[in-house]
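User: hey, got a sec? need CN hydrolase domain-containing protein folded
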Amino acid sequence: MLPSQPLLHAAVFALAVLQALASDTFIAAVYEHAVILPDATDKPVSPDEALALMNKNMDVLEGAIKEAAQQGAHIIVTPEDGIYGWLFTRETIYPYLEDIPDPAVNWIPCTDPTRFAPAPVQERLSCMARSNSIYVVANMGDKKPCNSSDPSCPRDGRYQYNTDVVFDPEGKLVARYHKYNLFRRETQFNYPKEPEAVTFETPFGKFGIFTCFDILFWEPAVVLVRELEVDTVLFPTAWMNVLPFLTAVEFHSAWAMGMGVNLLSANTHKTSLAMTGSGLFTPEGPAAYHYDSETEEGCLLLAELSARPRLSPTYPPAVNWSSFATSIKKFPAEKDTFSGAVRRDIFTFSELRSKAGNYTVCQGDLCCHLIYQMANKSEDEVYVLGAFDGLHGSLIKYHWQICTLLKCKSTDLSTCGQPVETAQTKFEMFSLSGTFGTNYVFPEVLYSGVQLAPGEFEVLRDGHLKSKHGTSKPLLTATLFGRLYEKDLPHPLRTSP
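Assistant: Yep! Here you go:
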């Protein structure tokens, strides 16, 4: 006699749990999705039209989830805005929203779809997880009614939240996270009244979750890692790449290294908006990553990761980010420094005039030190050492300290800091350090073509970033990106409309 379907599913799930428990590693997947966007409109579409668009995107996501599960993945992350896109006002996004309950209700939408208000998206995501015995992470919209008894209630009588959901291999909703740090264009959503630190346990470690712009702030990003000690962060994002320091793969890999956790980063893919760059990042560097600014194709990435990286024998030691820079005999500060803009931020730069040398550049409380030797110096390329110590941002202002060795766009020094994707100059060695006033520093090395440099650099315990054996490819930038969270200004928009 054949076993019943529920018993068969339970047996498969139990086997998957036992397999995960037997190993100190797990297989993770992320999917970079070329989102099918709705037509731009000033008026809300019908719920049926909204669901039809979301089903088109979920058809693609379901294919990626099935493929990941077939390759042994235990968990898959899909992007922010991956189900419906981002072309919305507050009114026009409403037909795409569902009421997402607190996971404490112990709900499997796939098997009990009518328990709450109509929730076809949650039902389908739950069934994807259940039928493939895999954790599924997705981003969608949540709606919560309110009334005049709540003084913060919006005029239309509801809160709308940019929301991440996680379904376990049985299809149960196990996590719900409302994005706390909205990007300036997300006017269709409300800010949550309080930051949420969302975690959940799995057989392969403790997980936390946040979304896109959240990664740059203390709450929830640092709280999850430093206070709640998650092993892996799930990170749906719709990240627009900004050279030279904030391309997705560059910064997300650096953040995982600087914070000492796994980061599963799934980006949307839209080359006209410079959206690309996903990866499976670890404290030791990228396990797998993808950057494609040429095509409009999605991409599935998988890698085997340490379930509890802090217990790994290769886990990087703690770093004192100012020790080296404050202990060395300072090089003479450059007298011919000049100012240059990286977007709106005014850096202090000094040109590297020879193939080898020692340089110091200071701004504010930060002094940046560089020792370098170029392997070949292209005559039509200029490199600079730069320092920035100040508030970044036009509306939301947060404090950066940055030391950077970077290539200028041309030999005209006024182009230093402008985006550039290609280079010709390789370095035999470089050593970069700074007198940082923070323990939160993220080490970046980016090669020509916006490529990472896994295994080719290291951060020593005294806080200097150095190449191991020279650069295998021409260098765009080597950067130490520091965050002084305690100097951030109060958020001016964290109120409901």
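Quick note: Confidence is low (pLDDT under 50) at residues 18-22. Let me know if you need anything else on CN hydrolase domain-containing protein.
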